[in-house]
């Protein structure tokens, strides 16, 4: 786990960086097996359509926003909290981005990221220094974030800044451009994943797990638990604002009601990935695979023409069943 | 604490109730339209629906659980009320809806009690399943139920008070009696306080959990029936997001998300606080977009304040 020993063994460092400890590796193999099973069975009953490269690339592209949000949610869940405000961070960032395009794309992106960072700092301060339960804090900031985004645009979607600037044309093709077989937004999601994974393997990043596993023990061991939590909440909302940028690029406007389902969808994905909701345990890539499993099943149901209204039923059953299976395994 | 002399601490113990009285007084003085019959009865109806599910959420939170499926159960029961009423009359429609609500609550309770799945995940799954089922059985369309005597239920009055609100207060009184006087009620606090201890003292923890989640489903059933009566339509999307409002009301009412702490009077006060705040913001013409910021901030500030006073009294 310690960075110094891993420098001596670069290969082990990188496997640990990606997949984590050996029990997590087993978990990942299991998830991979589930994913492959879904893929193979799905390909068989959909006549191979599911696994066509174009379809796979569509699945990833449609879930890029959720993939980034799952990374954010993971960081907070590992500390033993929940972040219900990730959807609001997405909405706020998308609105701030589009409405500050007058000052150039670079500044607009920066403004959107700052909006997320501020939201995360508010979450972090309320959770760490005021000691309110994260569920309640982020429930409140979710309401505040959506409300601010609506005030900003006057309630509706916004496709141009007050000065008339819209999302530049070069960026319109961002979502459909492929780089080495993967759409660009998926690369962004992977980049966020890798950055957070590297952070979690640094010496301060390890503390995130320690704080989530046993906050009291961590504090007694000399870890500044409040700083670790504060950084986790701030980083999570910052990542969620990256998801907000992706959302805007995908739809071409800023939406103050974007991502209403993201908090619960991301928690569901993280649970399917076997991350403990009480904190301290789990791997980031497992959360990613949770998203892929749900996404592939959703896509398969679409291909098979399953009634759209039945899809949430299937999703709910899968969430309950997989977490049930994790419970059996720990016996 | 036992002396009859007035102590500020005993006031602080009922902080929510005091806050309701103060806020009500302020609203009545500052907002001339607040005390009108029309305004009061419209808050009373809307917040009796939220109040009923908050009363359902409260025992669940007392056991350190959470019920995110309430909104979806409202959706199911709204659809069931309307569909069953079309076939066998609205009285049996109501019975069918209450049964459906209780049944889904009991299923949740069984999963929470007998598997190791955290309540958050079970009810998150049930939320998705419930909404999907409500949309599926109604084919995604609202189901009209234009039965006048049924719709009259939402507008019924008892001694000038909307009957739905009287019903909410009655349920609150019964729940308070149950939680403080009955062995099963006390056992709910014990389970939330320390589940392992409760089990070792011989309490049937699974049965208690099934009861609290079943009760939450039943209350969501009442809410679904009332909402259907109000609009004369069983809407599969009705109740969306209500679970978060009921959780807020319970938390503002002084219950701890970690279980074992909270009293029914506080929950009623939490519901009324949200209702009065909502009404005042509407009457004073605050834009609905700004209202979210105001409500969210007030809730967080109130909680921060109560947290501060709790930690200060703990330090003494």
Explain what you see.
The complex is a heterodimer of chains A (331) and B (316). Chain A is mainly alpha-helical. Chain A has a single domain (3-7, 25-329), classed as ABC transporter involved in vitamin B12 uptake, BtuC, CATH 1.10.3470. Chain A contains 16 helices and two strands. Chain A has helices at 3-8, 10-19, 22-45, 53-62, 64-78, 86-99, 105-128, 134-153, 169-172, 184-201, 203-213, 215-220, 225-251, 262-272, 284-303, 311-329, and strands at residues 178-179, 182-183. A two-stranded antiparallel sheet of chain A has the order 1-2. In chain A, a hairpin with a 2-residue loop joins strand 1 (178-179) and strand 2 (182-183). In chain A, helix 5 packs parallel to helix 10 and helix 6 crosses helix 13. By secondary structure, chain B is an all-alpha fold. Chain B has one domain (43-279, 290-302): ABC transporter involved in vitamin B12 uptake, BtuC. In chain B, 76% of the residues lie in helices and 3% in strands. Chain B contains 13 helices and four strands. Chain B has helices spanning 8-13, 15-30, 37-62, 70-114, 119-137, 148-152, 163-181, 183-193, 195-200, 205-231, 242-252, 264-283, 288-315; strands at residues 143-144, 157-158, 161-162, 233-234. A two-stranded antiparallel sheet of chain B has the order 1-4. In chain B, strand 2 (157-158) and strand 3 form a beta hairpin. Chain B starts with 7 loop residues before the first helix and ends with a helix. Chains A and B meet through helix 8, helix 14 and helix 16 of A and helix 5, helix 11 and helix 13 of B.
């Amino acid at each position: 786990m310690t960075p110094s020993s891993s420098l001596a063994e670069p290969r082990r460092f990188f496997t640990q960086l990606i997949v984590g400890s050996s029990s997590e590796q087993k978990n990942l193999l299991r998830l991979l097996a589930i994913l492959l099973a879904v893929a193979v069975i799905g390909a068989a009953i959909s006549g191979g359509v599911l696994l066509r490269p174009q379809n796979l690339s569509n699945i990833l592209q449609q879930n890029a926003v959720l993939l980034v949000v799952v990374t954010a949610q993971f960081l907070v869940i590992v500390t033993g909290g929940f972040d219900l405000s990730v959807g609001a961070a997405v909405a706020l960032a998308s609105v701030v981005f589009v409405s500050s395009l007058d000052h150039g794309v670079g500044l607009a992106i920066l403004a959107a990221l700052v909006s997320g960072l501020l939201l995360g700092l508010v979450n972090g301060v309320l959770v760490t220094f005021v000691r309110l339960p994260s569920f309640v804090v982020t429930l409140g900031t979710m309401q505040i974030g959506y409300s601010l985004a609506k005030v900003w645009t006057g309630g509706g979607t916004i496709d141009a800044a007050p000065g008339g600037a819209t999302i530049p044309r070069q960026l319109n093709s961002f979502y459909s451009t492929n780089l080495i077989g993967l759409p660009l937004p998926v690369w962004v999601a992977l980049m966020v994943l890798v950055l957070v994974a590297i952070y979690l393997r640094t010496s301060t990043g390890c503390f995130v797990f320690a704080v989530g596993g046993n906050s009291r023990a961590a504090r007694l061991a000399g870890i500044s638990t409040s700083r670790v939590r504060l950084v986790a909440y701030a980083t999570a909302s910052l990542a969620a604002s990256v998801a907000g940028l992706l959302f805007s690029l995908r739809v071409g406007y800023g939406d103050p009601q974007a991502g209403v389902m993201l908090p619960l969808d991301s928690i569901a994905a993280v649970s399917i990935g076997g991350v403990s909701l009480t904190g301290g345990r789990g791997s980031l890539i497992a959360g990613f695979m949770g998203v892929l499993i749900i996404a592939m099943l959703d896509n398969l149901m679409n291909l098979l023409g399953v009634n759209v209204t039945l899809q949430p039923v299937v999703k709910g059953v899968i969430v309950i069943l997989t977490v049930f299976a994790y419970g059996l395994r720990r016996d | 604490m036992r002396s009859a002399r007035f102590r500020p601490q005993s006031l602080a113990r009922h902080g929510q109730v005091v806050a309701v009285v103060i806020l009500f007084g302020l609203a009545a003085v500052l907002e001339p339209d607040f005390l009108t019959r029309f305004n009061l009865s419209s808050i009373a109806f809307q917040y009796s629906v939220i109040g009923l599910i908050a009363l359902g959420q409260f025992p669940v939170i007392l056991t350190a659980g959470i019920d995110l499926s309430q909104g979806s159960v409202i959706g199911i029961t709204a659809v069931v009320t309307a569909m069953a009423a079309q076939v066998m009359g609205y009285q049996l429609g109501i019975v069918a809806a209450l049964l459906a609500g209780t049944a889904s609550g009991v299923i949740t309770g069984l999963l929470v009690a007998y598997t190791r799945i955290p309540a958050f995940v079970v009810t998150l799954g049930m939320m998705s399943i419930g909404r999907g089922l409500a949309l599926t059985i109604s084919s995604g369309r609202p189901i009209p139920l234009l039965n006048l005597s049924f719709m009259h239920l939402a507008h019924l009055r008892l001694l000038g008070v909307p009957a739905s609100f009287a019903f909410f207060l009655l349920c609150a009184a019964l729940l308070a009696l149950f939680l403080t006087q009955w062995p099963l009620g006390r056992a709910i606090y014990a389970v939330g306080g320390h589940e392992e201890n409760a089990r070792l003292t011989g309490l049937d923890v699974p049965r208690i959990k099934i009861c609290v989640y079943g009760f939450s489903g039943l209350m969501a059933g009442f809410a679904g029936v009332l909402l259907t009566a109000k609009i004369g339509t069983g809407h599969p999307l009705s109740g969306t997001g209500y679970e978060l409002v009921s959780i807020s009301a319970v938390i503002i009412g002084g219950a701890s998300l970690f279980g074992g702490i909270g009293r029914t009077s506080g929950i009623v006060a939490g519901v009324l606080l949200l209702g009065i705040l909502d009404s005042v913001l509407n009457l004073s013409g605050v834009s609905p977009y700004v209202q979210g910021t105001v409500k969210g901030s007030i809730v967080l500030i109130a909680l921060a304040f109560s947290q501060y006073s709790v930690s200060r009294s703990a330090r003494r």
